């Protein structure tokens, strides 16, 4: 699971300018959240029979196709940012490029001038409308794809019953001071393309920060429950959450799980529970100083594992964005693969302001920041935080994340071949959606 938050602050407060009636909820409370505007609703797919419903989903998927150029920019952002974040990692790290991308895209939608140029350049598109439309397409595509797979499973795999099914859930929200003036076009774009809910709040109240944490918990299926620290200088927060569950194409037999030794980068040893399985018809490849394989996890997603050769450090795999891209991508052979994988479960929490500055998007943190598409009030980004969790067991993988940005005040081949994936030392992993790119990229130092 994962969530990301971008926090902004401002130098002055004005009466709210946005009046949007169809989906308002007045809370009647003088503390915390006072009003909520719900995001646009997706058009429902219906039909008189299964074939008609499938055709409806296929049409929706065609209508919301993500362009190759946008996907290339999304991937480039993932490699650039992940290489920066993983550098110097001496412990487990799990990072969500997609969650940070959404938080930055929502901020970029409200930016202009140099601030917009830096954010959009980092995100891989200079066109404001393309950024919004393609971000919306990712959200819609994943939702309609989920619906398509659910209909398929009901028709052809009824035996799955209550077994947990693969899914990707994205949610966005904006939390703004009740007195802050937001521009209607910006609010409309967030609700219509980013499917963000808009919350009018008082950041001086403890209840607001509890409500934000509760929203994150709800959108990550309870995996993340952050205790957010109150900051009265905050005037606006942008939050993205990402929840993911994938089930292994072939589940690891629980009776084959046994304790064994995992050797960390510093040579120290720890005991971990290792899952064991030998399967045929799996992708496998060997590169310069490493070997890699992947496991299909359902709904057009897969998890990639990259193991450095004996005597090579895992950090070599992400020393540069180019090396990271090479490690996570490549031409696979199909063969028998012997898997020995430690079960692991851990969380990561990181502040990303310095990372974003190094990536060339520093203007949004300065008093010169231009968010004039969002508001006429002078605001800048005061913090960008991301918290994630990932867990791997015999059944599959579950991940969640949130990213929050805060604005604060200025002032098929030979089956005879065999590949070994013995993950008994630090390794790189990535979880990828064919449509939305890299959901998570991380490194396991200690299972």
UniProtKB/TrEMBL annotation:
<feature type="domain" description="Serpin">
    <location>
        <begin position="79"/>
        <end position="447"/>
    </location>
</feature>
<dbReference type="InterPro" id="IPR023796">
    <property type="entry name" value="Serpin_dom"/>
</dbReference>
<dbReference type="GO" id="GO:0005615">
    <property type="term" value="C:extracellular space"/>
</dbReference>
<dbReference type="InterPro" id="IPR000215">
    <property type="entry name" value="Serpin_fam"/>
</dbReference>
<dbReference type="InterPro" id="IPR042178">
    <property type="entry name" value="Serpin_sf_1"/>
</dbReference>
<dbReference type="InterPro" id="IPR036186">
    <property type="entry name" value="Serpin_sf"/>
</dbReference>
<protein>
    <recommendedName>
        <fullName>Serpin domain-containing protein</fullName>
    </recommendedName>
</protein>
<comment type="similarity">
    <text>Belongs to the serpin family.</text>
</comment>
<dbReference type="Pfam" id="PF00079">
    <property type="entry name" value="Serpin"/>
</dbReference>
<dbReference type="GO" id="GO:0004867">
    <property type="term" value="F:serine-type endopeptidase inhibitor activity"/>
</dbReference>
<dbReference type="InterPro" id="IPR042185">
    <property type="entry name" value="Serpin_sf_2"/>
</dbReference>
């Amino acid at each position: 699971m994962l969530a990301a938050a971008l926090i902004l602050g401002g130098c002055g407060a004005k009466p709210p300018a946005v009046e949007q009636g169809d989906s308002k909820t007045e809370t009647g409370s003088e503390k915390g959240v006072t009003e909520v505007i719900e995001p646009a609703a997706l058009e429902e797919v219906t039909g008189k029979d299964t074939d008609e419903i499938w055709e409806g989903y296929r049409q929706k998927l065609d209508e919301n196709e993500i362009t190759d150029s946008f996907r290339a920019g999304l991937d480039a952002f993932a490699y650039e940012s992940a290489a920066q974040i993983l550098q110097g990692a001496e412990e487990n790290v799990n990072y969500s490029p997609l969650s940070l991308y959404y938080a930055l895209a929502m901020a970029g939608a409200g930016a202009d001038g140099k601030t917009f140029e830096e954010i959009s350049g980092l995100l891989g598109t200079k066109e404001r409308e393309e950024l919004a439309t393609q971000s919306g397409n990712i959200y819609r595509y994943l939702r309609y794809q989920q619906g398509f797979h659910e209909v398929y499973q009901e028709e052809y795999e009824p035996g799955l019953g209550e077994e947990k099914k693969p899914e990707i859930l994205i949610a966005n929200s904006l939390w703004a001071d009740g007195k802050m003036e937001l521009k209607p076009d910006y609010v409309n774009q967030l609700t219509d393309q980013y499917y963000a809910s808009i919350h009018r709040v008082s950041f001086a109240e403890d209840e607001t920060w509890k409500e934000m944490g509760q929203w994150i918990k709800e959108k990550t299926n309870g995996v993340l429950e952050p205790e957010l620290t109150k900051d009265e200088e905050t005037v606006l927060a942008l939050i993205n959450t990402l929840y993911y569950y994938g089930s292994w194409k072939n589940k690891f037999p629980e009776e084959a799980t046994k304790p064994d030794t995992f050797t960390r980068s510093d040579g120290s040893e720890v005991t971990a529970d290792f899952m064991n399985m030998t399967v045929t018809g799996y992708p496998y490849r060997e590169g310069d100083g490493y070997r890699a394989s992947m496991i299909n996890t359902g709904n057009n997603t897969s998890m990639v594992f990259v193991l450095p050769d004996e005597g090579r450090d895992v950090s070599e795999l992400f020393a540069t964005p180019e090396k990271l891209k090479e490690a996570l991508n490549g031409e696979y052979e199909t063969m028998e693969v012997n898997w020995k994988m430690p079960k692991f479960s851990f969380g990561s929490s990181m502040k990303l302001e310095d990372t974003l500055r190094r990536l060339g998007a520093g203007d949004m943190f300065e008093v010169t920041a231009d968010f004039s598409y969002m508001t006429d009030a002078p605001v800048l980004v005061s913090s960008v935080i991301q918290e994630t969790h990932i867990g791997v067991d015999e059944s599959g993988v579950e991940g969640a994340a949130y990213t929050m940005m805060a604005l604060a005040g200025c002032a098929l081949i030979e089956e005879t071949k065999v590949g070994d994936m013995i993950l008994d030392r630090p390794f790189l992993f990535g979880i990828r959606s064919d449509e939305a790119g890299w959901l998570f990229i991380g490194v396991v130092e200690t299972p």
